[in-house]
Amino acid sequence: MEIVLPIDDILPQLIQASKEHHCVVLQAPPGAGKTTRVPLALLACEWLRGKIVVIQPRRLAVYSAAHRLAQQLGESPGPRVGYRTRYDRCVAPANRIEVVTDGVFLAQLQRDPELSGVAMVLFDEFHERSVNVDLGLAFALESQQALRAAADPLRLLVMSATLDGERLSQWLQAPLLQSRGRSFPVATQYRPCPRDRYPDQHICQVILEALRNEPGSLLVFLPGMREIRAVQRRLEESPLPDAVQIHVLHASLPKEQQQAALIPAPAPLRKVVLATNVAETSITIEDVRVVIDSGEARVARYDERRGMNHLHTEMISAASAEQRRGRAGRTQAGVCYRLWGESRQTSLKAFSDPDMLTTDLQPIALELAQWGVRDLNELTLLDQPPEDRLQRARAALQQLGALRDDHSLTPFGRSLSAMGLPPRLAALVLRAKGSPAQSEAVLCAAILSEGDPLRQSPAHFQADIHLRLTPTSAPRPQRLQRLCQQIEGRLRRAPTAPEVEVKVEVEVESDTTGSTATTLPILLARAFPDRIAQQRPNQPLRYRLSNGKGVQLRRHDTLARHPYLVVLDAGGTGTDADIQLACPITLEAVRQALPTLITEQEHCFWDSARQAVSAERQQHLGQLILQQQALAKPWPRQAADVLLQALLDADLQPLPWHENSLQLCQRLCWLHRSQPGQWPDFSREALQQDAREWLAPFLENCYSFKELSHIPLLDALRNRLGWERLVELDQAAPADWELATGKHRIHYDNGTPTLKVRLQECYGISSHPTLPGGEPITLELLSPARRPLQITRDLGAFWTGSYREVAKEMRGRYPKHFWPDDPATAQATTRTKRAMDKNNSA
């Protein structure tokens, strides 16, 4: 008897909506049965003529869905239900339902934008929001609207368990149908890890507790294979109940092991399935009624600092937590143990971030170019990728030779797209075609695509890619061998672009000895031009990439003896990423691999030890300096720029600040303060702000601070003011004041115009001196020894006031000098009384 599922109630509505509308949104919680029931219900519709394509987010989900659909038809996959994945296919011309991964569907769309023969596309588990799903839906919408005839419409059904259905419905302008949830209740218990317990130890204890207290099999969600193996070891060392089997479910495992984890355990056996998030959607493990959720997942995030993706372990979203919880209620009432506190549950973000916003955009940029999109506004995307990152991705593809300046595909770019690999890896194997290193390049691409096959302890980790390329030092898992075979097959079928357009890109110098020692590093360098790593001086484990980012080797890694590496993979959470895979390369091989990216330029810099400008010719690859050669003399203009910057860093102090130059600035600063808006600012800060305009022209042919003594600084300052205003300056703030004894400099440095003059030189002045604008000049009256006696802004009041006391004291101290009783009418002098008498008698 067929089990009744919640989705069954709305199947008639769904079929009618799909007939009346070309796009429909179905929201059905976990366990509703959408994957199992909907494709078969549509298959039974006579009005739907053509193939039904069902898109699943993972290979395991494809296998599971295809087998369950075929089983309900009383068949095995092949006659009416087929499937395609990256590694495997089971298809026939008579297939009415074809289950595919999102990557396979996107490739089908690129080959056949009309989707000929396809009547309907079902986007299952759309809430996972992979890049391929988002692009696949956007391209399918464009195909539906622009390429398909009205008589042969392409129908789309977007199915989601936890995505915001209202938002999706409004965006697509499609009807929204909602199904009730799972058939069986699931109790939730929270078991946060105590601080004094290791996570794997705590998970193991919760598993043992569940085995004691609950019937049925267990599904344990862990972030990755490392955590799975740690829990597996602890369980195998623990006193497990009788008749308990431990299974592992991971995308990297052979299909046979995956199937063993999925099939029900024969009575009286029970299973503990240790899985990653591959078990989160679209698969059912029949006898599971207990879920233990670590709350973590390992996801690829694009790291701006490093310029590459890295795997990051993070807390899942509330939607993912609900998906996992639903695994316990598929076939009977269940229980879910969450290994975090109930209070933390409320702080989980609602949904996982779409990959479009978090991952490397190079594959996206290539797909967009292949589809013919140059402006993202032309495409209907639920979430637009960040524009700045998309531009950087396009620039990287231009470096690879895949894109033109207008973002259209080059012939080489079209060849890359046909390979079905990430752009870098496709470039690697295409350029290796026919070279001695072809098989090694293919294996490198497979390893970088699927993961490192070499298991090493952290203490003995070696990042050298060559250790993975020899069968004696690294295993060749079946999945790796299958991928290599597929890449080789695609390489044989890959279109060859016209030689004139791709010669520089694809031609690798032949190695007459047949060795790959030089060829492979060159191929890798051309695929990863932004990841050429140069060893930092006196730091053998630390390197700088050509994109400017930092990376490092682990201790004892033998690659540290190589000054240059091609970094193929890196990760970790530190400031410098940990190098996971790299290939040593010589400087000469770098030059041979990337001749068009290596530039030469003359570089001027400030030598602080010599206090002078130095210059050298530098060979650059991105942010790296490959070679330096000292030059006898810098170019004058570049030297002037460097010297000016050194002056600015020193607050212009090294300039020849003679008294006239200083006073000019002080006069103008006083006018700027006393007459706001009428005079320019000549403070040191203001002079620095526009130094390139007024000072730089006077620095040509100067190469050191010492040579600055020859520049006409006063002329430069006058030029800044302008010659017309110099005349006004002499009237508004004169440099000197004429007394009977001669000219005396006016000081403007203390905030007010000041004359510092000996008291005897002011004799005969009855009214206080003022500037042309009426500002009194402050008089600092000095003794014959030029020591301060009095400061006044009213000389007449001084003569009739405190002068008498000052004169009385000074007559005793300086008896040889003239101290008249009436200074306002006396003769100004700089002489002693004796010299005055001698001059008068003469």
Summarize the entry for a quick read.
With 842 residues, the protein is α/β, with parallel strands linked by helices. The chain contains 31 helices and 29 strands. It has five domains: 6-178, Rossmann fold (3-Layer(aba) Sandwich), CATH 3.40.50; 186-355, 3-Layer(aba) Sandwich (Rossmann fold); 410-593, no CATH class; 632-733, no CATH class; 741-841, no CATH class.
Walk me through what this model shows:
This protein is of the alpha/beta class. It has five domains: 6-178, 3-Layer(aba) Sandwich (Rossmann fold), CATH 3.40.50.300; 186-355, P-loop containing nucleotide triphosphate hydrolases (Rossmann fold, 3-Layer(aba) Sandwich); 410-593, no CATH class; 632-733, no CATH class; 741-841, no CATH class. Helices cover 36% and strands 20% of the residues. It is built from 31 helices and 29 strands. Strands 4-3-5-2-6-7-1-8 form an eight-stranded mixed sheet, sandwiched between helices. A six-stranded parallel sheet has the order 9-16-13-10-12-11, with helices on both faces. Helix 13 (362-371) crosses helix 14 (387-400) and helix 16 (423-432) packs antiparallel against helix 17 (438-450). It starts with 10 loop residues before the first helix and ends with a helix.
